[in-house]
Amino acid sequence: MVVDDEILNRKLIEAMLKPQGYEVTTAVDGEDCLVRVEEVMPDLILMDIMMPNLNGFEVVTRLKTNEKLALIPIVMVTALQDVGDRVKALEVGADDFLTKPVDRMELRARVRSLLKVKAYNDHMVNYRQELETEVAKQTLVIAEAHAKLRDASLETIFRLARAAEYKDEDTGNHIISMSRISAYLAERLGLNSVVVERILYASPMHDIGKIGIPDRILTKNGPLNDEEWAIMRMHTIFGGQILEGSDIGFLRLGEVIALTHHEKWDGSGYPRGLVGAKIPMAGRIVAVADVFDALMSKRPYKPPLTMEQTVDIIRAGRGTHFDPEVVDIFMASLAEVNKFWQTAQAEQHPVLEKSSHNLDAIHAI
Ligand SMILES: [Fe+2]
């Protein structure tokens, strides 16, 4: 873009450059240049200094302070020999000078070299944009891979938990329902969202230690004797051992839940007889959700209890079996709890072959 208020000067420069194959556009003064430069986006500006209204310095100042235009090289073309003007031109950001009358060879040489610089700058800008696009693309790929991996590990946990309950549960719905209820109660108790999510994923593993209980006890058709009960209670310890030593947050919490979901508020629970707040909160929450789910479920040896009967039993356990605070939140959440329960029942999960018997309701209570 040739910016000059003298038509003859514009024509002269145009005539020198056009035969070289350059596309030349002109602006009749500084204001015209500022108006048109953004639509033309020239690769180089040849700027006269002495112009009416805005002089060359003022125009260059504006161009160089505009982020979009600052990389366009500017050659100041002037009749002035004054060193002061050259210094000023440099200060406002001009890239080079030409003296009038313009020498054709010199003009072409300057134009050629500055266009090279411009081409290099354009390349770098494009390269950076391409890199940014590529990084954004790869970030998305990584995020998707991460989500898939997370889904895969969660599904594995659910299936592992089902494997542990395979012999003594009707369906996989128990772990779905009780984990959602546990997470909901945790949220209403004010636990932070990270812990709530961990409870959702960790609680299905609460009975994973049943895998270590002999079938003759796990599926016994009738009440357990003292010795059998002692072994049955070991499922908490086994679960803790299966899950211990992990660096993964929800597996660590799974260990805690496996170990403490049969502890009771009054200290009469197992395996350690912890009392009150000594029982980790996650264990206290899962205790309520586990019992609720067990009582509501149909078992070979018992019909499902009604919501009312189940709620009565949990209320009766407030402060003895259960943490009073968790029971209060549970009572305040009956509509939601019932919804979680109904939804989980309606979901289609692979039906697990049920065995002849289980002691789920008994041992949960
Ligand atoms: Fe259990």
Give structural notes.
With 365 residues, this protein is mainly α. 59% of the residues lie in helices and 5% in strands. It contains 15 helices and five strands. The chain has helices at residues 7-17, 30-40, 56-64, 83-92, 104-165, 173-188, 193-202, 215-218, 226-243, 249-260, 281-296, 307-316, 324-332, 334-346, 360-364; strands at residues 2-3, 26-27, 45-48, 74-78, 96-99. A five-stranded parallel β-sheet has the order 2-1-3-4-5, sandwiched between helices. Mean pLDDT is 88; it is low at 350-365. The protein binds fe (ii) ion (FE2). The site of fe (ii) ion (FE2) has 5 residues, from loops. Fe (ii) ion (FE2) binds next to loops.
Key structural traits:
15 helices, binds fe (ii) ion, Hypothetical protein af1432, 2 domains, rod-shaped, mainly alpha
What is the averaged pLDDT score? Answer: 88
Global Rg: 39 Å
Low-confidence runs: 350-365
Total domains: 2
Overall geometry comes to rod-shaped
What is the beta-strand fraction? under 5%
Distance between the termini: 87 Å
CATH class of the largest domain: Mainly Alpha
- Note the run of SSEs as H and E: EHEHEHEHEHHHHHHHHHHH
Question: What's the CATH topology name of the largest domain?
Answer: Hypothetical protein af1432
Helix run count: 15
* Spatial order of the strands forming the largest sheet: 2-1-3-4-5
By CATH, the architecture of the largest domain is named Orthogonal Bundle
Bound molecules: fe (ii) ion
Structural class: mainly alpha
Estimated helix fraction: 55-70%
How many strands in all?
5
Largest sheet, strands/sense/barrel: 5 strands, parallel
CATH superfamily of the largest domain, please? Hypothetical protein af1432
